[in-house]
Amino acid sequence: MAASNTGAAAASGTASAAFGAEGATSMTLAEEFLCDLDEDEDNNAEGEEQASAPMTREAAAAVERAVKDVAAQGAGPMEVTDLKATDAKDIAKLLFSKRLEDLMKKVEHFSSIERTEAFDKTVNLESNEEYQLMQQANNMAVDLSNEIEALHKFMRDMYAARFPELESLVPLPIEYAKTVLRIGTETDMTRVDLADILAGPTIMGVAVSASTTRGKPLDSETYMKVIDTCNMLLRVDATRQKILDYVESRMLFIAPNVTAVVGSTIAAKLMGAAGGLNLLARLPSCVIQILGQKKASLAGYSATHYRMHTGFVYDCDIIKSTPLDLRTRACRLIAGKLTLAVRVDNNHDASAVTGEIGRKLRDFVVKRIEKWQEPPPAKAVKPLPAPDDKPKKRRGGRRVRKMKERYALTDVRKQANRMQFGGVEETYRDTGIGFGMLGAAGSGKLRVTSVDKGLLKKVKKDRLTSTMPGTRTAAGLRSSGIATSGLSSSLAFTPVQGIELENPEARKAKLQQALADSHNYFAETAGFKKS
Questions:
Q1: How many other β-carbons are positioned within 10 Å of the β-carbon of residue 181?
Q2: Which residue, among 26, 27, 30, 29, has the nearest Cα to 10 in the 3D structure?
Q3: How confident is the model over 104-123, as pLDDT tens digits?
Q4: Of 281, 250, 280, 258, nearest to 362 (Cα)?
């Protein structure tokens, strides 16, 4: 101790010298830390001197009385398993305790009494003897569950030398104990029937693992310890089940609303897992939903059918009658309503004795699940609006005509929209855009010469006026009705006489007469003439 103090002082001096002027005015951080170390060493020295002092007689007597009380009451829920236990009886102390024996006598006594009415909640319910027994039974069920886990660990450690893979294949204590009793020292798994204990995929995994296991046979003494532990574990489980059956028979009277929602069996399991009605009422719905969740054991198989975040609530009748795709959603809904029912029962209200609130909550859950299963409403056919027969305002005038001409379909577009009958339409590269009738004449030109429609109308009107008989000419005189071409001439070139003087009017009259004769000859009313 003196050497350590000397070293600390030297280190303190070195630190103060390193910090210089700042260390002279105030204590530095390093000096404070070294002072704290010195104080801790002084306190430890004082504690060692006090610990070395002999214990007084009063303190020794108090410790001895506490040890005797614990031994008399048996194992508690938080007791740690003795690491030096060599037998199952060293672990299953609660099974042979006076506490469990007295509790089972009371359970048998009250089980023989048939109850027809609920507990009187107008008075203090905690003073009721049977209600106190219910609370003790719930606590005892929790303690027995802890003892089952301890026995399972003890048995698993011993049997791992024979079949180490069985621990991962069968994780539940009860199933593990029954499987160990059924297998024993058998090496041929075809002679072992596990159909009434395990599921089909698990049996297959156990059979395959047993044929390739690296375990070794157990000696006779260890094997007998394993068998005794299995039998004791099943005995503890039977005692626990008897207590839960009694609690289940009284659930309708102690928690009528919870029983109305999920049934007496699930209600008893929830109370047993939580440790009583009061503790169950303190839990949120997300915890109540997973109470009693089992450890997954896939054994190398698919996790498709593995139920995650499910406990005792998942096994109620409402969930079983719900489709698979809605069960997780329904489980959350039931857990929420179950939380309300538990708190109503824990409130000890006289109006909640009949369980009417629980029945209303159950009806609400059932109707909500039925609502989820209803098909969506059919899409309504929207009728067309009533036609408006009022005349619409149409705008006319030069500006509207110009606008229509500006947005009118061009001649090029009209030709492109047309198709030639029996012909192949030309397309522009690989775009699929066709040219229609553009360039169909064989010229190869796609441009269409636009003609002014106004000019065409004017030309047609002029031609019609000029061909009508008795019309007035540009000089103001009436013509004879026969239009004379300005390019006509009285000179004709013939191969016989060369240039010949001819009357153009007479020649034109001769041609008209020839046309008239041909028309009369091919007319529909023309007949045959005698020559």
A1: 15
A2: 30
A3: 988 888 888 877 666 655 55
A4: 258
